[in-house]
Design brief:
Length: 455
């Protein structure tokens, strides 16, 4: 006799397959069960959270028998910290899952689109060049913690003595800063109560030089003891070196990392990175891909797709940031025009063009929507590297109205890419080739470069 399963019941299931980077599929007496978590090939205990006529939904709560590719995660905080999802999964399997996810999603709607093999990250550990740690506690009124948010929780913070995705210097700095402020008895900012002082610690490192920028974000409710904080950092024995320390005050109610008017406390306010022969000046608040070596491969693929169109006259780089993609493209195009809403990023882009003696790249500080409405120029190619949410239907329409023969889209979220591809299709654009690039080992994220051409 089969057991009676109700909402809230825990049942044992053999997981049949991963259907996305976070969900799996199993069957119970012929009923499809969509599960949050788990791996294909696992036997897992699953809590049923929803029961519909055609499908059930559940959450993996315990592994009964592991899949063949599972391994013991090296980090003691794995499963508690929200930083890594696949640290217990062999890297080759991670690549397989990411490649399959992107390929199935694209080929379902665009069967003629060629999907290239996934490009692996050159480093799978300690690959991040920037981290944003949060101050808080792991339990109510517990000791001060400095780390990442707990898995599935908005307020609890998990500290780790040794993080496997950021440089070892970052772990040493974060641990020292946590102990420094614990000794002072300093309080973290509490979002709900809207009180407290310490908010975030931002660390950024150059792969080229090893130099590190340190950014401390606090509210204005307390004065920072500047000399003591600097001494705490400079006393550390690090592989790299601390090039600059900045202090940012943020009194907003939200928990978002907001960087406005950083005050330089020590050293210099920027470091330099090298990407495909282009020198990039980076401040603490600039956007750049967080995996430097992986970014070289990502931009190489974007450049390859751009050059495959035989376009060489003019390129438009939307959401250009500090000009990284545009300056790389400038070597292959007669002129490049970059657009970005953040004024500080545009100033950096212009400075980066001067540093590299690139005279054929121009940059404008503007909302992309406003630029597209007023622009009268024509472009051979458009490069897009939008935020995680993608462009949205209206912006896709405005981009399509420029009637560029080709678009190179760099996406950090496959679902957003798919939504935008559907919008572009209405205006005669279809993806002809795409390639997943893994810049985020041990996480569910994957970049995708896609080439769209006007049909």
């Amino acid at each position: 006799m089969n057991e009676i399963v109700k909402k809230g019941s825990n049942i044992e299931l053999d997981i049949a397959q991963n259907i996305s980077m976070s969900k799996t599929l199993a069957f119970y007496n012929g009923m499809k069960v969509f599960i949050e978590g788990g791996y294909e090939g696992q036997k897992a205990e699953v809590k049923i959270t929803k029961m519909k006529q055609s499908r059930w939904e559940g959450k993996a709560v315990r592994t009964i028998a592991p899949a063949a590719f599972e391994k013991e995660a090296p980090c003691e905080k794995f499963g508690v910290c929200g930083g890594c999802r696949f640290l217990d999964c062999e890297y080759e399997k991670q690549l397989e899952l990411k490649s399959r996810y992107v390929s199935q999603m694209l080929n379902r709607s665009y069967p003629s689109c060629t999907i290239e093999d996934v490009i692996a990250s050159p480093n799978i550990y300690h690959y991040r060049n920037k981290m944003e740690f949060s101050f808080g506690d792991s339990e109510k009124d517990g000791p001060l913690e400095l780390g990442l948010h707990a898995k599935g929780k908005h307020h609890d913070i998990v500290s780790s003595e040794f993080c496997y995705i950021c440089p070892e210097d970052f772990s040493a700095i974060a641990n020292a800063v946590k102990e420094h402020f614990r000794h002072m008895g300093a309080a973290p900012y509490k979002v709900i109560a809207r009180e407290g002082w310490l908010r975030h610690l931002i660390l950024r490192q150059s792969e080229a030089s090893g130099e590190i920028l340190v950014g401390l974000v606090t509210t204005s409710s307390q004065k920072l003891r500047v000399e003591a904080f600097i001494d705490c950092l400079l006393s550390l024995s690090l592989e790299g070196s601390i090039a600059g320390i900045v202090h940012i005050q943020n009194d907003s109610y939200s928990d978002a990392v907001i960087i406005e008017k950083p005050v330089l406390l020590y050293g210099k306010g920027s470091i330099e990175e090298h990407v495909l022969g282009v020198r990039l000046k980076l401040a603490i608040d600039c956007f750049m891909q967080t995996n430097t070596k992986g970014m070289q491969l990502l931009y190489s693929k974007a450049l390859e797709y751009a050059q495959s169109t035989n376009a060489s006259v003019s390129a438009l780089d939307l959401y250009c940031g500090i000009g990284s993609i545009g300056l790389v493209l400038s070597r292959a195009f007669r002129s490049v025009y970059g657009v970005e809403i953040v004024q500080a990023s545009i100033e950096s882009a212009r400075e980066n063009a001067i540093i590299n003696n690139i005279g054929n790249a121009r940059f404008e500080a503007s909302d992309v929507k406003d630029f597209l409405k007023s622009n009268k120029e024509k472009f051979d190619l458009i490069a897009l590297d939008p935020p995680r949410a993608g462009l949205g239907k209206k912006v896709c329409e405005q981009v399509a109205k420029l009637k560029a023969p080709a678009i190179v889209y760099v996406s950090c979220k496959p679902q957003s890419l798919m939504h935008d591809l559907e919008s572009f299709e209405e205006y005669g654009y279809k993806p002809t080739i795409a390639c997943p690039v893994d810049l985020f080992p041990h996480t569910e994220h994957v970049e995708t470069v896609a080439l769209m051409q006007k049909q």
